[in-house]
């Protein structure tokens, strides 16, 4: 678009003056702004590592299984992403879980419990709750995995989460498969009161059903595993694995210090501390979890045959002589 012709003796009262100013405002100025304006960068392109505070590009972070390339810190991941990492080739079948009463106590604090549920479902697990269950193969062995979604109300365990663990155990029995549970939870869900506490014995019974059938029950403790979850099914696995640096315990460290009036040791309630004190069998980096679990399932499902006892040596008869 060419500018209107402008004479040397034009004043601000001439009509052509307004045409010129209109051309500058409507045509030239937007182009200048488009050139010099800063492009907006989406917020989700970079993540700050909680361990070393380095900025990590989201594609590199995803390719590294959400583990910091600088310090090795294991960032929290969602339940579906967890299933993709554990199952062979990321292939699994997700099962539909039984429907439960959404708000049995009609709980309300600053907001209604139903509103909090709808908000969590809209962002993390549509029509679901804090646990996702899938089945497939790990190391070529049939397995059922129940993974917690910490982003769904802190992965808290209510009636729906308890029902999901029970359903996963029943599916493992039906398929004669191993049951693997991956908790990432702050504990029992307070909005469901005593009903959430009842899920502790329910989930323990579900795990015992799998054990009594002679099927492997493996727990992978991730950050964080606390409260009623750590006090129930999360600590009774045949084999207990943990991700590096995961916070594992019942009460928080600050609460314990204020109760006993003592300074807790360095690294208290971390996976490595629990490994040193015999509460965890192995601390396994995320990239090695699938291989490690597959190897364990091979040992548990296909044990090596017992070696035949060595024949007794026959006493040698004395030479005649």
Short description:
By secondary structure, the protein is α/β, with parallel strands linked by helices. It has eleven helices and nine strands. Helices cover 36% and strands 13% of the residues.
What does this structure look like?
Strands 3-4-5-6-7-8-9 form a seven-stranded mixed sheet. It is elongated. The mean pLDDT is 89. It has helices at 15-36, 58-63, 79-86, 113-123, 159-175, 193-197, 199-212, 227-230, 253-260, 271-276, 289-301; strands spanning 46-48, 55-57, 92-94, 131-138, 141-148, 178-182, 217-221, 239-242, 282-283. With 321 residues, the chain is α/β, with parallel strands linked by helices. It starts with 14 loop residues before the first helix and ends in a 20-residue tail after the last helix. Helix 5 packs parallel to helix 7. It folds into two domains: 41-75, no CATH class; 77-301, 2-enoyl-CoA Hydratase, Chain A, domain 1.
Describe the secondary structure blueprint for this structure.
Layout: H1 15-36, E1 46-48, E2 55-57, H2 58-63, H3 79-86, E3 92-94, H4 113-123, E4 131-138, E5 141-148, H5 159-175, E6 178-182, H6 193-197, H7 199-212, E7 217-221, H8 227-230, E8 239-242, H9 253-260, H10 271-276, E9 282-283, H11 289-301
Parallel strand pairs: 5-6, 6-7, 7-8, 8-9
Antiparallel strand pairs: 1-2, 3-4, 4-5
